[in-house]
Amino acid sequence: MSLVTEEIRAKAEVYRGDEICQEKSKELLNEIFLPNGLLPLKDIEECGYVRETGFVWLKQKKSVTHKFDKIGKLVSYANEVTAIAEPHRIKKLTGVKTKELLVWITLSDIYVDNPPTEKITFKTPSGLSRSFPVSAFQVEEEPKKEAKDNKDVKESTKDVNGGAVASLQVKEV
């Protein structure tokens, strides 16, 4: 059963489509001072954010397992990932598991110290935790692609409170 109810949707900024959801998830991670590669989801269908409470969700077509090469860890992301986002922290996380030895363990909290120590800590519901370098989860930003005729064209659809709004931005380079 989904944690995202119609009542929550009514209060949220809701976005649909992989490209805009990838962008918004990275923006949120930057906004709360967490590394931008923390949520390497694929084929995101919908994402939403309730600013008042910090509740955020991401829905993807199917679950994804990702290996963070710098630390050699496998992490599984379910079809629906939900959490409460705060500065330097994600809490009440659902839909994310990590493999330790031969067992998949649920993660419930992710946080970085403030002031920064260059470490990120992952905590389980039972209180066990492990810390890793923040750099293991940071991804280099790709330079923006140039469209034909040296114009950068960006198109997105945003659904706020049930109404769809399409926007088109054209920027001369």
From TrEMBL:
Pfam families: DUF538 (PF04398). Coiled coil: none annotated. Residues 139-173 are annotated as: Disordered. InterPro entries: At5g01610-like, DUF538. Residues 141-158 have a biased composition (Basic and acidic residues). This is Plant/F25P12-18 protein.
